[in-house]
């Protein structure tokens, strides 16, 4: 691995950068593999002490984060598809410290994850929020927002809205969010060990362009943060133009107050101070077990008049439809609405937010997609099978490992379902999706967009 000489030169003198060990770690080691467990989908052999039956090393700064001794084939692990864990780079999980140290996570919060795809930070934030909270997960690139939606569905939650908007659209919601996470698009030098091709694309010119874009994104979106609201800004770049310089700009030009974190318990994380005295945190692969990362936190001091949004009314469903739908979900404070030609379940507390987002934003997904009622019967949506709110009364058929993989590949299975009709199929008691068992065949309803395309003997 040949690191760009211009990068190494510009990092000389930057806090925590040591050329020899930095170059060596890139030449001699691979990025460690780490996962974050989904506490809402506990599985046998997956707890704080053991994961997959092995005693694993925890990620020091994230309660549900673990390093794996080697990279297994996630593609061929049904529990991965069931949303029992998310494969995430360890340094990024430090977001948990920013949130636990600086936000009141016991209160219902409105959180915006502005640059959210593929959803590592969003699924993490969702796991940390308390009841009544809303997470808006936004991704500007359409194709990536679809992947984000798939990952949110897999996580099984009901309090996330996925939007597909340019950051400037959020100026329509002045002083709306308590917390804003901006994990900005960047020049990507922190991920060179994971993606050697990114080295070819790296240039000083691109660093400068990224820095300008980061300012633009932040300036566009900050209106939507409340006074005293928390901004968490992160990149996976080592370049000071994208890190310390942005901190200075946020403090000087955007009048934010920089907030320190306590990192005493995490040796190896480097505290960096900008020219004007703001502090942020640098992660170097030769100092901690993870990839290159930068994070800094701020409080908004300026006041914004909350906008007067027109109260919109979501389209509700008929009493007949409600009767059909209700039997499929656990008793929870859910309200049923018509959304994108289907029925969705929205937590009652979030109904006003849903109405607003439906009227004003490119809202792609919200709550739990339940399905459609046809001839007084529900045709269930895949998201309902993955939801933690699915009623335990819904019939389920447990699959062997071989059949679970065939199911995820949308191939025929050799299975005798317990009952006829719609039912969830499970592996190790974790729901994978729907089948409809007819008299002489089983219809596999695993969504074809997310099916496993590889054959078992291909490398994962
Ligand atoms: N937060 C994500 C996670 O943890 O999985 C990773 C986000 S990635 C570092 C940055 C994201 O910003 C990408 O998904 C990219 O498509 C998006 N992006 C690119 N250009 C953007 C722009 N002009 N405004 C907002 N987001 C942008």
Task: Summarize the structure in words.
With 460 residues, the protein is an alpha+beta fold. Helix content is 25%, strand content 26%. The protein is built from 13 helices and 24 strands. Strands 7, 8, 9, 10, 11, 12, 13, 14, 15 and 18 form a ten-stranded mixed beta sheet that branches. A four-stranded antiparallel beta sheet has the order 4-5-1-6, with helices on one face. Helix 13 links the parallel strand 21 and strand 22 (421-427). Helix 4 (95-102) packs parallel to helix 5 (120-128). The longest helix is centred in the middle third of the chain and has 18 residues, at 204-221. It is globular. The chain starts with a helix and ends in a 16-residue tail after the last strand. The model has no long low-confidence stretch (mean pLDDT 95). It binds S-adenosylmethionine (SAM).
């Amino acid at each position: 691995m040949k690191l760009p000489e211009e990068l190494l030169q510009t990092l000389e003198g930057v806090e925590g950068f040591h050329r020899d060990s930095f170059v060596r770690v890139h030449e001699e080691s691979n990025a460690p593999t780490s996962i974050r467990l989904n506490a809402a989908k506990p599985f046998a052999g997956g707890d704080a002490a053991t994961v997959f039956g092995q005693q694993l090393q925890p990620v020091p700064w994230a309660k549900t984060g673990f390093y794996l001794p080697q990279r297994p084939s996630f593609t061929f692990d049904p529990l991965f598809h069931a949303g029992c864990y998310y494969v995430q780079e360890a340094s990024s999980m430090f977001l948990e410290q920013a949130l636990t140290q600086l936000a009141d996570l016991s209160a219902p919060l409105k959180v915006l994850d502005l640059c959210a795809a593929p959803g590592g930070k969003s699924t993490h934030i969702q796991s940390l929020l308390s009841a009544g909270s809303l997470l808006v997960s936004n991704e500007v690139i359409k194709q990536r927002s679809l992947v984000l939606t798939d990952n949110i569905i897999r996580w099984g939650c009901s309090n996330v809205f996925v939007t597909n908007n340019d950051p400037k659209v959020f100026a329509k919601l002045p002083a709306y969010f308590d917390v804003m996470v901006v994990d900005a698009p960047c020049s990507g030098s922190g991920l060179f060990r994971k993606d050697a091709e990114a080295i070819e694309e790296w240039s000083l010119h691109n660093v400068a362009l990224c820095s300008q874009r980061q300012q633009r994104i932040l300036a566009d979106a900050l209106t939507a943060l409340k006074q005293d609201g928390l901004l968490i800004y992160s990149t996976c770049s080592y370049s000071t133009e994208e890190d310390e310089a942005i901190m200075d700009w946020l403090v000087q030009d955007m009048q934010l107050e920089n907030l320190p974190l306590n990192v005493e318990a995490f040796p190896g994380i480097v505290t960096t101070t900008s020219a004007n005295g703001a502090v942020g945190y640098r992660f170097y692969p030769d100092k901690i077990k993870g990839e290159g990362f930068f994070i800094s936190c701020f409080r908004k001091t300026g006041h914004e008049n909350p906008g007067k949004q027109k109260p919109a009314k979501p389209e509700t469903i008929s009493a007949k439809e409600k009767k059909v739908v209700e039997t499929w979900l656990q008793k929870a404070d859910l309200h049923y609405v018509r959304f994108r030609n289907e029925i969705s379940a929205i937590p009652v507390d979030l109904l006003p937010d849903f109405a607003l987002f439906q009227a004003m934003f490119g809202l792609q997904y919200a709550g739990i997609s339940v399905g459609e009622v046809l001839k007084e019967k529900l045709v269930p949506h895949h998201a309902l099978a993955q939801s933690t709110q699915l009623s335990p009364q819904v019939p389920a058929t447990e699959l062997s490992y071989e059949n679970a993989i065939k199911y995820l590949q949308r191939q025929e299975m050799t299975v005798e379902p317990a009952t006829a009709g719609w039912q969830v199929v499970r592996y190790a008691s974790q729901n994978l999706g729907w089948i409809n068992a007819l008299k002489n065949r089983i219809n596999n309803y695993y969504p074809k967009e997310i099916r496993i395309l590889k054959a078992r003997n291909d490398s994962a």
